[in-house]
Amino acid sequence: MIADNPPRLVATDVDGTLLDDRDAVSPRTAAVISRLVDAGAGFVLVTGRPPRWIPPVIAKLPAGMVRLCVCANGAVLYDAVDDVLLGAHTLEPDAVRRLAALAGKLFPGCGLGVERVGTAATGRVELGTVDEFLTGPGYVHAWGAHDGGPASRDELVARPVTKLLIRAPELTSEQMMATFEPEVGGIADLTFSHPSGLLEASAPGVTKATGLADVAARLGVTAAQTIAFGDMPNDREMLRWAGTGVAMGNAHPDLVGLADEVTAPNSRDGIAEVLERWF
After folding, report:
1. What DSSP letter does each residue of the chain carry, written as one string?
2. For 232-267, how does the pLDDT look when each residue is reduced to its tens digit (9 = 90+)?
3. Which of 80, 15, 72 is nearest to 43 (CA)?
4. pLDDT tens digit sequence for 200-223
């Protein structure tokens, strides 16, 4: 339902939601975010992006707007001000190996990638770990150029990961999900944020909703006091969890059907159109 009172926590996806089609935050959206923060409401990014891809987003916003960021579809909680990880949920190597074998069976020739995290998005190495993206042979990145390092299949499955990516660009992501999900069981939580042949696997039960619930608990805010914006299936659980879930006008049909409200597209200030009712 649509809240009458101003939300105490505003959560938004990044790509296709906060960012417009020019990869920018519009002046109108930036202004309403400034007003809601000045009014005492919390503002949190909830994204499939890894921590190291957060600073460029924050640079597009007015200074001081964002501290807590839910990354990797809920697997990582990142403090963007102190550049430190506050928590991470990982898929263990045995699960990664089983998923990789299943993917190879169902999608012959598919590419695999893994996201791993350490203690800083800037690449500072501590305790032998670092925020990194590794890709195996044949992996075709969904967003063009990427910062992944090459790795053998054995290297990909050797350590816990926050996210396993399965790439088969000759298929749609919906086709991959329909084929893969029935075979996975409880090994992992599956979703996708790109339409062209990319599945994202996280630890069982880990979604953007669980990550956002963690932030809300830290801030003393309830689901009913939270509004969330999203555009792709990886936002589904978050929009269901929030007291008010808003799908963008450019959203995947799955989100349009479950949202409390559908706003304008990301290219036409959809977030601002809703938040200006209160701020």
Report:
1. ---SSPPSEEEE-IIIIIS-TTS---HHHHHHHHHHHHTT-EEEEE-SS-GGGSHHHHTTS-TTS--EEEEGGGTEEEETTTTEEEEE--B-HHHHHHHHHHHHHHSTT-EEEEEE--S-TT---BTTB--EEEE-TT---TTSS--PEE--HHHHTSS-BSEEEEE-TTS-HHHHHHHHHHHHTTS-EEE-SSSSSEEEEESTT--HHHHHHHHHHHHT--GGGEEEEE-SGGGHHHHHHSSEEEE-TT--HHHHHH-SEE---GGGTHHHHHHTTT-
2. 999 999 999 999 999 999 999 999 999 999 999 999
3. 80
4. 999 999 999 999 999 999 999 999
Alpha-carbon distance of 271 to 275, in angstroms, equals 6
Amino acid code (one letter) for 248: M
Cα gap 189→103, rounded to integer Å = 14
pTM of the model: 0.93
How is the beta sheet containing 163-167 ordered, strand by strand?
A: 149-150, 132-135, 111-116, 163-167, 198-202, 189-191
Measured CA to CA, the distance from residue 186 to residue 167 in angstroms comes to 21
Q: Which residue, 268, 211, 264, 218, is CA-closest to 234? A: 211
Name every residue whose Cβ is closer than 8 Å to that of residue 87 and which is 6 or more positions away in sequence. 76, 77, 214
